[in-house]
Amino acid sequence: MDNKIKMRAQKVKFFYGKMQALKDINLNIHANCVTALIGPSGCGKSTFIRLFNRMNELLPYTLLKGKVYLDDLDINSPLVDAVDIRRRVGMVFQKPNPFPKSIFENISYGLKVNGVKDKDYVAGKVEESLKKAALWEEVKDRLGESALRLSGGQQQRLCIARCLAVENEVILFDEPCASLDPISTAKIEELILELKNDYSIVIVTHNMQQAARVSDSTAFFLMGELIECGRTTDIFTAPKDKKTEAYITGRFG
Amino acid sequence: MKQILVQKFGFGLLYLCIITTLFLLGLIIYFIFAKGLAVISWSFLTQQPHNAMTAGGVGPVIVGTLYLTLGSMLFAVPLGLACAIYLCEYSPKGLVVNIIRMSINNLAGVPSVVFGLFGLAVFVKFFGFGVSILSGSLTLGILALPLIISASQEALMAVPQSLREASLSLGATKWGTIKNIVLPTALPGILTGVILSIGRVAGETAPILFTAAAFYLRGYPKSIFSEVMVLPYHIYALMTEGAHPDKQKAIAYGCSLILLFLVLFISGVAIFLRQRQRSYNG
């Protein structure tokens, strides 16, 4: 928590049509830390995480008020291209979503669209990313096979590797283990802890134990409001707000 | 017990429908084979018609059909695909787009002879392309457009949003995402639309009646401004005009058989491409 601030949300309000999904959220994402966003379904945590790489602007009839900063850059400024932000802030989604292409093409895709042409560099980067995502040993002999033949857990690690290949600075995980079995989940959690050394990480999760296991700081959302945030150990052992306590002890949500 | 009987009766009825359909299809193919196969030979496929079209082959007619079919696709596929991409990926959702969609669907219901008259007025006369391969291809292309647009739209809409998001989240631009992810994923569906419209276009007579087709020509078409002989019109002409109805009839059945195979062949190529892409998608 003493690390420098990597991303910052300042007085963020978000609307789907007339429905207000986020109410005046202020939150700091620290460098080389894992920040967990927890809360019951529909509390706005997924909406919130998608603000950090400007994913919400793909949806029609939405409105954002307030500022989101990456380092000191206002990412929603009209001078900033969303494409540049997404190159620096990667995302792993709830359901594994590999492209209907080969394993190799999945990983090299981010490099390709960013204009990297050097074949040796791309091949090296693919191997390095797959190794970082702990998938290399399982797929090194079949890089040309369709990524859709992999199991769900492997597909999700592939999506993480795909994200790593672009060398971004922040990785957003939107419930990355929601559709995975416990073994795959453990692998992904292990991975997140390792990635922390090089990246700033934000993770949305429904799983309290997961938040406690992987995160350094935790933010609790309820009905579009940020109820409490702080060190994960503090939130889980001595929550200040009664609603937080009720949620993490399983009394609602 | 009664329920089971009712169910059996229901299934039986459905089965009967399938059998009837297959029987009719088989009957058509059988008749065309039985009556057409006799005249098919290598020289029939390659030579030119002789003796008031009672002898010789139909080489130029086959070539003409190929030209027109491919020409129409050359025009309709890029244009239709571009329209579908705009409607699905770029246009703001709302009333205007709904009206455009409705118009396209209505266009698909316009009788083909109306397209023929339109082609005559616009391509043959106004643009001065004359009765030619070009005019015919453009007219057939317009006929195929709504089919291709709606098939492509369906295919594009079936691409999961999660793939678009994944691509964008890696720093791809919108166009990069469409080109690299959306189009390849939608390709099987798009090709299905193309296959259907090839079948439709190759067999159409009315749109080319005034825009491209000739009753009899010497030799092969020389440029895109030449008139052509085309299988469907050739069949029509053989059956309705000329002085030797019996001889002509046999040739007409031969032409039908060739047309059948031509459509099968062109569709086959598209099906092959589609399968190849599907094996990657699945």
Structure notes:
The complex is a heterodimer of chains A (253) and B (282). With 253 residues, chain A is of the alpha/beta class. Chain A contains 10 helices and 10 strands. Chain A has helices spanning 45-49, 82-88, 103-113, 119-132, 136-139, 152-164, 182-195, 208-214, 232-237, 242-248; strands at residues 5-16, 19-30, 34-38, 62-70, 73-74, 89-92, 170-174, 200-204, 217-222, 225-231. The relative contact order of chain A is 0.18. With 282 residues, chain B is mostly helical. Chains A and B meet through helix 2, helix 3 and helix 6 of A and helix 7 and helix 8 of B.
Quaternary state of the chains: heterodimer
Number of helices of chain A: 10
Helix percentage range of chain B? over 70%
Cα gyration radius of chain B (Å): 23 Å
Briefly, what CATH class of the largest domain in chain B?
Mainly Alpha
Radius of gyration of chain A: 18 Å
CATH 4th-level superfamily of the largest domain in chain B: MetI-like
| CATH architectural category of the largest domain in chain B | Orthogonal Bundle
What's the number of structural domains of chain A?
1
User: Pairing-aware structural class of the strands and helices of chain B?
Assistant: mainly alpha
Distance between the termini of chain A: 28 Å
* Contiguous runs where pLDDT drops below 50 for at least 5 residues of chain B: none
**Tell me, what's the shape of chain A?**
globular
Q: Determine the mean pLDDT of chain B.
A: 87
Q: State the CATH topology of chain A.
A: Rossmann fold
The SSE string of chain B, one letter per element, is: HHEEHHHHHHHHH
Following the backbone from N to C, one meets helices and strands of chain A in this order, namely EEEHEEHEHHHHEHEHEEHH
Name the features.
heterodimer; A: about 250 residues; alpha/beta; Rossmann fold; 6-stranded mixed β-sheet; 4-stranded antiparallel β-sheet; 10 helices; about 35% helix; B: about 280 residues; mainly alpha; MetI-like fold; 2 domains; two-stranded antiparallel ribbon; 11 helices; about 75% helix; about 0% strand; globular
